[in-house]
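The freezer alarm interrupted the setup, so I double-checked each line after restarting. Inputs confirmed:
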Amino acid sequence: MELYDDERDRSSTPAVSVRVSSSDVATDPVPPVFELEKLEVHYGSFRAVRDVTLGIREHEITAFIGPSGCGKTTVLRCLNRMNDLIPGARVGGKLTFHGIDLYSPEVSATEVRRRIGMVFQKPNPFPKSIYDNIAFGPRINGVSDRSKLDEIVERSLRGAALWDEVKDRLHASALGMSGGQQQRLCIARTIAVEPEVVLMDEPCSALDPIATARIEELMRELKKTFTIVIVTHNMQQAARCSDRTAFFTAELDEKSEQRTGLLVEYDATARIFSNPRDERTENYITGRFG
Amino acid sequence: MRHPGDPILAMSLRPRRTWRTVKSAAMSMMMLAAFVIIAMPLAAIVWSLVAKGASVAFAHFPDFFTKTIPMVERRPGPGMGPAILGTMLVTGGATLIAVPLGILGAVYLHEYGVQSRFARLVRFMAMVMTGVPSIVMGLFVYVVWTMRFGYSAFGGALGLACLMLPVVIGSTETMLRLVPNQMREASYALGATKARTILTVVLPAAAPGIVSGALLAVARAAGETAPLLFALGAATSYNPHFFEQANTALSVQIFGNATSSFVAAQDRAWGAALALVLLTFLVTLAARVFTARFKR
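Predicted 3D structure, all chains:
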């Protein structure tokens, strides 16, 4: 990992795929990509989330679900240090990426974000051409060779199932595309820098069902190459495409009258939706609140 | 079930004259009247400019725009060439000083300083600076520059730059505020640094607005007279040197000639006024074409 600013040695990559022999089904056979332990996030004096402990595994889709204000987006934004951009945001507890503390002073947020990409709730293409949108990431990483950029643009657009729709108008403005196309463009732009993880913050909430179905199909394709973490309000979506689901909820603190989010349950998606351990999860899944 | 074209239904669907429709009509009339009242002075200005200026400026085209200014006021004849060059020098110089400084200042205020104490102080000072009368700015430049180094186009440019700077800062900061935060986040999420994000995402997105804001400041400065009265002196021949010798400008010539008692001079003032309006119009047009191409 090249997360350290000053470290040039690439040979120190931890062996991620070493299998640990274990008969216990509950323990992970593969060390997780992210490990969160008692993670909590404050905005100024307000505690937004507390007690999040979970591990996110490679080449899986992990879904965060829960009612509004439960902190799932906040936790997601911790994973690539996007919360750094919010004044007053503080992260406590432990958050490691392949065993490296993401919030260590020796870790550069910029380097973290190059490896952990993010797709946002509202499609946010740059007001540039389709080509320049995709080429933005590679360019800031120092790729200037035209034929190489062409190749990256084509590969990324194909990866986001967008190539056939836009190959004849690569130099048209990205703002002229439909919402669903814009969101797939944002996915293509994210995978163009070849991250290891793609974080998605309610990527389909602004899209119609047909565009949503295309994105979900795309996610299933992408998880072969990337690890995906998705925040969603749509429980069917979590049930349809995720491997694991984390259910968050918000609790009102009697003293401070603040609502703080917390992780209630984290398990295989099939189990969460068929046989949840916690009553709060069951109530939410069955539509009794939220 | 009504049959197609039912006369009773057709009657009930007709527009009805109620108090609401009367109010609506009255308000529309008032707005139209307001527009006419606003447009009238503008039309009057353009009309008198063309009526009195065109015959002077375009009499022996292009003499008026190229010949030098007569040394003796009462002598009739063309010539505003040195003043046109002077206006371009002074305004161009002021633009070169104020626009880069103003844009950098606004980038600091909006992207780096934000609500820090220093940024708030700078923002407040810029606001105060907007309210400083141009004659006071002229006096300031006269004291710190002209008294020491003598008349020059640069002194005039300095005065105009002081007037333009707060306008450029203000309009640029507004434009930066209009760039959605999602755009910055998209760039950061791809691993871009802050400087990179500002240079390649924020500024290009705000560019059309920044250009029009700067342009407004340029157009205002081009017609400014007071600071130039102190700093330029009164040349009648071409002076292409930016840093030395007395120069002149269209606005100064309009002021001097219009207050003269000789008809020939007054005519030249009208011609100069028309030339000034045409000049600012051309600059505005050029910038609009430029920004339109920028936007694609």
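Quick read of the result. The mean pLDDT of chain A is 85.
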